[in-house]
Design brief:
Helix content is 55%, strand content 0%. Helix 2 packs across helix 3. It has a domain of 38 residues. It is built from three helices and no strands. The radius of gyration is 12 Å and the shape is globular. 7% of the residues are buried. With 60 residues, the protein is mostly helical.
Length: 60
């Protein structure tokens, strides 16, 4: 069973900031590390990229 990704989530994931974060999460998953919780300490985001990530998370 495949589930379609809602268009708004897909569009958000393609933004530069979220793309960096999602790539880091995929890397963690490939290394068999947890992905549902934790801190991505090796991810560096610009201020605009941080705002893009915050859009979905509902934070500043």
């Amino acid at each position: 069973m495949t589930t379609a990704i809602p268009p708004g989530i897909r569009d958000w994931a393609l933004l530069p900031g979220p793309a960096v974060v999602l790539d880091a999460v995929r890397t963690r998953a490939r290394r068999a590390h947890r992905t549902e919780a934790g801190t991505l300490t090796n991810v560096v985001l610009t201020a605009p990229q941080r705002r893009e990530v915050a859009l979905l998370l509902g934070t500043r």
